[in-house]
Automatic annotation (TrEMBL):
The keyword Transcription regulation belongs to this UniProt entry's keyword annotation: yes
Protein name: RNA polymerase sigma factor
Family statement drawn from the similarity comment of this UniProt entry: Belongs to the sigma-70 factor family. ECF subfamily.
InterPro entries in alphabetical order: DUF6596 (IPR046531), RNA_pol_sigma70_r2 (IPR007627), RNA_pol_sigma70_r4_t2 (IPR013249), RNA_pol_sigma_r2 (IPR013325), RNA_pol_sigma_r3/r4-like (IPR013324), TPR-like_helical_dom_sf (IPR011990), WH-like_DNA-bd_sf (IPR036388)
Start and end residues of each RNA polymerase sigma factor 70 region 4 type domain: 109-160
Regions that span the bilayer: none
Pfam families with a match to the protein in the record: DUF6596, Sigma70_r2, Sigma70_r4_2
Keyword vocabulary terms for this entry: Sigma factor, Transcription, Transcription regulation
Residue ranges of every copy of the RNA polymerase sigma-70 region domain listed in the record: 20-78
DUF6596 domain residues: 178-277
PANTHER family membership: BLL6612 PROTEIN (PTHR47756:SF2), BLL6612 PROTEIN-RELATED (PTHR47756)
Length: 409
């Protein structure tokens, strides 16, 4: 039974986005696509333990999802008969017009990121439809309640239907207007893969990081002169380069300062550094992703944590705060300030963020570490307890628990 469960999980990771994209292309309805895909996987959970895992799980799921979609359309009595029959008889293998993008999942991302939708709605909808993330995972990414996120996604789908926004291949002229939402989606998908937010998944979801990198490379090919595309790709590569050293053999998160730098991927680091250098050489003012990539370039340039140029990292965060004055950026800046000016100075900055980040586990984890370094063990323990209660990632929880238990009573 466990083998079957793993097979369904693997199929969901590998096939969800492709199936949803194909259904959306065929039936032109995001609700139909999502529900039919979900029903196909639910059917697999019921059937595969009895019938066995099919030799081609993706083909089986695609066929089942198409049948589920057709059944649903036939049940909808309000739908115009001619429209219903046209959709049911639509030849899904019919060639599509050639456009700027020839990757089906990337087309779906650009469709979900239509400018008619608010930016947060674009990102949330795409994470659900393309990334296959659950509602709790998406809600955690936005630091909002699950019900709030569900309503946001429902409204986005309704707007697409009401405005008759077409599912089509974007033209080259459409790409720049949709790029911001697309990059935000890919960044969040990558982050969910690199450090999964839920307790019921692997701590690191390599299929998500790999897909985010793959799609970002495709966009880089479409828009080779765009600085933020290059910056995001560099950021992903430099972050991914550390993955092998990020989780210990016992399943515990390994902090950057404790990682075995000999396990870092030098090929990814070299490619990421090259992208960063090219953007600096362009002389164009950098955007958010380019600055984040530059920060990671500084980290990955140090052979030992003691060699890290913290003054340069703080300067880069100062630059980032001017274009992205979010509390999370301020929190990350404070972590760097602690290395440069000491934990006391950093704690003052962190405590200013209390009201805005109280529900964010990394806020409490940062406070705990600063308080620990200042010798305030009792307060550090309380902060660790709060961080542990909010953290969903099993590797991160294990790390925080160990750090808390090492405190002196």
């Amino acid at each position: 039974m466990s083998d079957v469960h793993e097979a369904v999980t693997r199929a969901h990771r590998a096939e969800w986005a492709r199936i949803v994209a194909g259904l959306t292309r065929r039936f032109g309805d995001l609700d139909v696509a999502e529900e039919a895909a979900a029903e196909a996987f639910a059917t697999a959970v019921e059937r595969w333990p009895v019938d066995g895992v099919p030799p081609g799980p993706g083909a089986w799921l695609t066929t089942t999802a198409n049948r589920k979609a057709i059944d649903r359309i036939r049940r909808e009595s309000k739908r115009d008969d001619k429209q219903r029959e046209a959709q049911i008889s639509y030849d899904e293998d019919r060639p599509e017009p050639v456009g700027a993008i020839d990757d089906e999942r990337l087309r779906l991302i650009f469709t979900c990121c239509h400018p008619a939708l608010a930016m947060e709605a674009r990102v949330a909808l795409t994470l659900r439809m393309v990334g296959g993330l659950s509602m709790p995972e998406i809600a955690r990414a936005f630091l909002v309640q699950e019900a709030t996120m569900g309503q946001r996604i429902t409204r986005a789908k309704a707007k697409i239907k009401a405005a008759r926004i077409p599912y089509r291949v974007p033209s080259a002229e459409d790409l720049p207007g949709r790029l911001g939402g697309v990059l935000a989606v890919l960044f969040l998908v990558f982050n969910e893969g690199y450090l999964a937010s839920g307790p019921d998944t692997d701590p690191v979801r390599t299929e998500l990081t790999a897909e985010a990198v793959r799609l970002t490379r495709l966009i880089r090919g479409l828009l080779p002169d765009d600085g933020e595309v290059a910056g995001l790709l560099a950021l992903m590569l430099l972050t991914e380069s550390r993955r092998a050293a990020r989780v210990s053999a016992s399943g515990e998160l390994v902090s950057l300062s404790e990682q075995d730098r000999g396990a870092w991927d030098t090929g990814l680091i070299a490619e990421g550094h090259r992208l960063v250098r090219d953007r600096i050489a362009s002389g164009v003012a950098p955007g958010r992703y380019q600055i984040l990539a530059a920060i990671n370039a500084v980290h990955t340039s140090a052979r030992d944590v003691r060699d890290t140029d913290w003054s340069q990292i703080v300067a880069l965060y100062d630059q980032l705060v001017r274009i992205d004055p979010s509390p999370i950026v301020a929190l990350n800046r404070a972590v760097a300030v602690a290395e440069l000016d000491g934990p006391e100075v950093a704690l003052v900055a962190v405590d200013r963020l209390d009201e805005r980040l109280d529900g964010y586990h990394a806020f409490h984890a940062t406070r705990a570490d600063l308080l620990r370094r200042m010798g305030r063990s009792g307060q550090a323990r309380e902060a660790y307890d709060r961080a542990i209660a909010l953290a969903g990632n099993t590797a991160e929880t294990a790390y925080l628990t160990r750090r808390r238990d090492q405190l002196r009573s």
